[in-house]
Amino acid sequence: MAGEQAPWYNVVLALPTPVERLVRVAGQGVIPPPPAPWVPRLTMRWPSVLLAAEAEAAAALSRALRPVPPLTVSIEGWGVYPSGTVYLQVLPSPQLLRLHGAVRQALTPLSRELMPERDGPGWHPHIDISPAAALDLLALVGRLRSAAFAPQASFACNRVRLARRNSDGTWQVVHEVRLGAA
């Protein structure tokens, strides 16, 4: 349809449920509240517009990632972007960098990046705690420093998701690849 904007897609490393819950608790009190359903995740590919059919991109991602073994993600601290978004800093391990490279190799010929400065050599692996500026940033930072939230942690991840941005701004998972399922 003329004038209609092409949907955006991104690729994320899904977090284990206990880690996802912990990130949600840490981010309570953000204004505006995250769009439903906001899911904590580690972005592997920033928003892109597909130049191929969604099914073709999903198939390319599956071919590239099924042979990749599950990996351990390690948190090495936290930070705050100038926008006010609070994030957990992820250690850029060789396994994580290989996974990121495989995602880029699979999708680069099939998509146009919307934020190329955030991908490639400038990729900064992290997990957003609050997708928007926090109402009380000092209180959020206090929670992060508390004994109840220890950001130094490692956990296993084995699922990568292709998600499409809906017209209402929410993201919908359209394909999932289980790492090591070759």
Essential attributes:
single chain, 182 residues, alpha+beta, Cyclic Phosphodiesterase, Chain: A, 5-stranded antiparallel sheet, 4-stranded antiparallel sheet, 9 strands
What does this structure look like?
There is one protein chain. The protein has 182 residues and is of the alpha+beta class. It has one domain: Alpha-Beta Complex (Cyclic Phosphodiesterase, Chain: A), CATH 3.90.1140.10. The protein contains 4 helices and 9 strands. The strands form 2 sheets. It has a 5-stranded antiparallel sheet. Strand 3 and strand 4 (86-90) form a beta hairpin. The longest helix is centred in the middle third of the chain and has 14 residues, at 94-107. The protein is globular, with a radius of gyration of 16 Å. The termini are far apart. The mean pLDDT is 79.
Largest sheet: 5 strands, antiparallel
The stretches of 5 or more residues where confidence is low (pLDDT under 50) are none
The dominant shape is globular
Highest CATH level, the class:
Alpha Beta
| Helix fraction by DSSP (H/I, runs of at least 4) | 10-25%
Architecture per CATH nomenclature, i.e. the level-2 architecture? Alpha-Beta Complex
